[in-house]
Amino acid sequence: MPKARATLISMVCLLSIFISGLGKEVEEKQTLRKTFAFDETAGAKAVEVDNFEGSIQVTGYEGREVHLVVNETLEADSQERALKARRKVRLDIRQTNNTVRCSVDGPFRCRNCSISFRGWEHCGYKLRYDFELKVPQQTGLRVKTVNGRDVEIEKTSGKFDVENINGGIRMTDISGAGRVYALNGKVRVRFAENPRADCYFGSLNGNVEVTFRPGLSANARLKTFNGKAYSDFPVSYLAADKPMKKSENGKFVYKSGEFQGVRIGEGGPELKFDAFNGNIRILSHED
Fold this sequence. Notes:
- The chain has one helix at 79-88, and strands at 7-9, 26-37, 46-50, 56-61, 65-76, 90-96, 99-105, 125-136, 140-147, 151-154, 160-166, 169-174, 178-182, 187-191, 199-203, 208-212, 218-224, 229-231, 235-237, 244-248, 251-255, 260-264, 270-275, 280-284.
- The two termini are 14 Å apart.
- Helices cover 3% and strands 52% of the residues.
- The radius of gyration is 21 Å and the shape is globular.
- The strands form three sheets. The chain has an eleven-stranded mixed β-sheet with strand order 1-18-24-16-14-12-10-4-8-5-2, with helices on one face.
- By secondary structure, the chain is mainly beta.
- The protein has one domain.
């Protein structure tokens, strides 16, 4: 049977960041391995990774333990700068109840946990952590990084909150629901089971491509400024979002949410697609 042509959804709507290098006289690599056991009677399981420089890969499996591998790479202009890197950049890994938390702290973080960084060349060193995790499939995920390759997640079914600043996000054969955002990269998500709760998929400078199973029913909200939106699923248009109302200098000001609403199938959870400088593609797959 010929594949149905994607429907172009007419709509309109609506930010960047960068990196550097340094000359290296010192290069050190080491690998850390840890295993964590979840308490099956203690409620929801979760893994959190707050990285800065480096990649994150997560794979779900039919097991009960979290297997963590962290590959560390240190580059420095001198041995003195290498020692300084060890003092200034810290990797913290701990388990609290049924949550495993991994975080990287250093001169790039402000007191309020926001990021402010002029580049590794100002430090004379660079520390990179690449995370590989194997987790029980239903584990909830909250993972983010700033500089690195794509964040890659596959075969998980828990709630998710995934963010990458200078790279893309690829999620494959997942279920569950949550938020996905890549500031300067593509978002590619492929569901093994259609979401049953609200989701958000966004990118500032990349395409947003999400693939669902046939029979999807949802209310989709779409917004793009320099792109177009396409759907493999037939859609019907929903009423526009109600304008937000606030008072300024004694006058009422109304502002539109700028999302175009469409219904897919019989409607259902709200799926938001937000691409400022890219296209939105809502795709279908049968295998």
